[in-house]
Write a structure and sequence with these properties.
Order of helices and strands: HHHHHH
Number of strands: 0
Number of helices: 6
Radius of gyration: 16 Å
Structural class: mainly alpha
Helix content: over 70%
Strand content: under 5%
Distance between the termini: 35 Å
């Protein structure tokens, strides 16, 4: 019951609460440079997509922590989830600075990712669950790399933030791999890419 209450509380805080980072924002101290309206709209859209990605990561980690009976793995997943909450706070802060907003569909994104994570953990076991973490982090890393190429060159604040997020995702994938992840079958990876494409395309606008 305690675990269920904790899971519900985390879900509500992820979707509805304002987030506060434990680590300093990588953009702190970087002078703000003027962006034209086109550049600002693009940065806002990319940051909204990044925020949605972090909402989904929170859901995935939380679902897998709920599903596993391995206490060490549960603690590992919850620690990664806590660290990724910094990303939520950073992207929210950047959106607010630019006059943007988070996705209106965040409850839907969270519910979908939670369902996928929980089913994967229950049906495939801990190794499959960790395999989902690895593949998710690899796909997020690839998205963040593409965002680095799309962000305006003079927006050093956003670029510093995305670079740190990318480094964190790489480390989380490596940690999951070391913890015993199995490689997912190619069809599952393909379905994950399709789902990610739908999410990023919609979140870019809504």
């Amino acid at each position: 019951m305690d675990q269920l209450l904790s899971t519900t509380n985390r879900a509500l805080r992820t979707v509805f609460a304002q987030h506060h980072a434990n680590r300093p924002n990588p953009a702190n101290g970087i002078p703000e440079t003027p962006l034209n309206e086109t550049e600002k709209r693009e940065v806002v859209a990319l940051m909204r997509v990044n925020h949605v990605g972090e909402v989904c990561a929170q859901a995935l980690y939380t679902a897998q922590a709920l599903a596993t009976k391995d206490m060490a793995l549960r603690n590992h997943l919850q620690a990664a989830c806590d660290e990724e909450s910094d990303h939520l706070a950073w992207t929210e802060e950047r959106l607010k600075q630019l006059g943007g907003r988070t996705s209106l569909l965040n409850p839907l994104w969270y519910a979908g990712a939670f369902g996928i994570g929980f089913v994967a953990a229950k049906l495939g076991g801990d190794a499959m669950s960790l395999g989902f973490v690895v593949e998710t982090e690899h796909q997020v890393e690839a998205h963040l790399q593409s965002h680095m190429q799309r962000l305006p060159e003079n927006d050093q604040a956003s670029r510093a933030m995305v670079a740190q997020m990318k480094a964190d995702e790489m480390r989380h994938a490596q940690e999951a791999q070391s913890a015993g992840a199995v490689e997912l079958p190619a069809p599952i990876k393909g379905l994950m890419r399709v789902a990610a494409k739908v999410m990023t395309t919609v979140a870019h606008r809504i």
